[in-house]
Amino acid sequence: MWGERGTNVIDEVNITFGVYNGQSLTTKGKITKDYFPEVTERLITKINITPNLTTMITGHGNTKNYLHRFKIIDSPECPCGHNDQTTDHTLLECTLLSKERDSLISAVSRTDDWPTDKHKLITKQYKAFTRFTNQISFDKLNVHNTLMT
Ligand SMILES: [Zn+2]
Predict the structure, then answer these.
(1) DSSP the chain
(2) Domain residue ranges in the chain
């Protein structure tokens, strides 16, 4: 099941981009729109899509908020204890990722204010942003996930 879901996430981001490139904006399309107000082929092909990046961009993936929404786990709350584990929480406030976020903030701060808009993260700040997202180990963060029975 877990392996299958990994594959589905990749499929999902393709579908998401496909949907957004077309017309109908779904919920996931809206999240993606923060990152891609104007989607261009050039931009998409440049992006190396990893499961974590997919999660951050679409909100669909390994966050507890997502897993809880689909009744895979009992609680959406992040192990840091401060909030539900959404992608924004992960990106902006989770104390468990302070160190990783500090590197991202210092990279972004060279040219922009933090927090910067998401479109900038995926374009101008792409390198620092993907470094941050790919450093996140959701498995490690969520080691106390309890599967619903
Ligand atoms: Zn947290």
Answers:
(1) -HHHHHHHHHHHHHHHHHHHHSS---HHHHHHHHH-SS--HHHHHH----HHHHHHHHS-SS-HHHHHHTTSBS--B-TTSSSB--HHHHHHT-GGGHHHHHHHHHHHHTTS-SSPPHHHHHTTTHHHHHHHHHH--HHHHTTT--B--
(2) 2-141
Question: What protein residues have CB closer than 5 angstroms to ion ligand 1?
Answer: 78, 80, 94
State in Å: Cα 64 to ligand 1 middle: 10
pLDDT tens string 53-66: 888 988 888 899 99
pLDDT above 90: residue 83: yes
